[in-house]
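Write out structure tokens for Site-specific integrase.
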Amino acid sequence: MAIKKNYRADNTYLISTDTTDNPKLGAKVLNDGRESLFLDFYFGYSKVFNEKTGKETIKKNRRREYLSLYLWQAPRTQLERQQNKELLEIAKKIRFEREQELKEDKLGYRLKKEEVEINYLDFMAEYHASYTKKDANQIRRARTVFIDFLIDPKGKLLPGKITGSMAKEEKEAIRQSNAKKEAQRERKAQGLVVRPQHLTKDLMKAFTEYLINRFTGEGAHTVYGRFKKMILAALDKDIIAKNPCRGVSIKKDYGQLKKEILSQEEIVLLANTHYEKENPDIHRAFIFCLYCGLRWCDVKDLTYANVDYSNKLLKFEQSKTKAHSAASGVVIPLNDGLLHLIGQPKDGNRNQIIFPLPSHTMCLKALRHWVARAGIEKHITWHCARHSCGTNLLSNGANIKTVASILGHSGLSHTEKYTRAVDSLKQAAIDSMPPLNL
């Protein structure tokens, strides 16, 4: 039965229908389309002396307690109506307990953990906020991708329990505006409720399938690895009882190169392509990565102190494997062209950054615009420079051990995927010849 909402001057209304209820359950309308549930306690009357009038007045003694529980003001779907129903039942239980304590004159009530269950998405956000390691962005990404999976109609395995708050029109607006995508996703996250008991093995299997279909290369494996990291943290804090990811894995294929690569002709084309208001540092840094195979996280931190000008060498520690691998230190020989790209430090300060780059997002946007202006119809990311370098070195006759050393691989298994890419390039070259009609 729908609640009759008799709004009062302070934009609140009472949900309690029994006049003897103390405390009374009510709700305050918020500006974001939600209603905040509260309890109003009544402690009788008291006399208050008014100094201005010199008379005593009667004052009602009241206290309001907000429950940090929120209803949808105008639920649009069956899922939102179901969520309102569940939250109201919780609020009514709290009201009843408060009333019993008031009658028994007890204080210091605290809501039991089992009465208001944890939203696992909130835990993920808190985990990321307190995370201090270098892969913090990957932790955040794992959470946003998990939210995307839940929003995806194919991902909703628990209708009525995992709920969304956005209408179809709003979802369409999200697709049309990349600038608003992150903010809109967070709005959706506020409307999603994922209880610990919803994290089942079936849900994990569906999530891994979603990741494999969405990402190329090692993206699916990376995202799932960070997601499992948060699952283990929830296990340690007794938020979930068992690991739903156990037995559900994404195998990393070291033998296959899935990213796009740039041919040597396309690299020359890209290097010679310029446009108005281009960022010269992004231009220099990406070309440098194409020739030396550096990751974005490494090239952005290079200083002139990493360059041995007299011996024409670049020496640095890989961020990804620093303190974790004996092969984290890399030494790359430089030619005159690469030294020209690097240039000389201003005022002789060797601690200056060689390539002062903006954020990774801004670099990707600039790169995509640059590739399009060059007329290259490939999906090129910054990491494609590393793959392109490895593949082109092998195709030019370098042996696999040399390439592994330049790329800073700890073993040859990482480098072997480039040999398969070289074979496919050879096949493509043969296939490009005119057909034989014998």
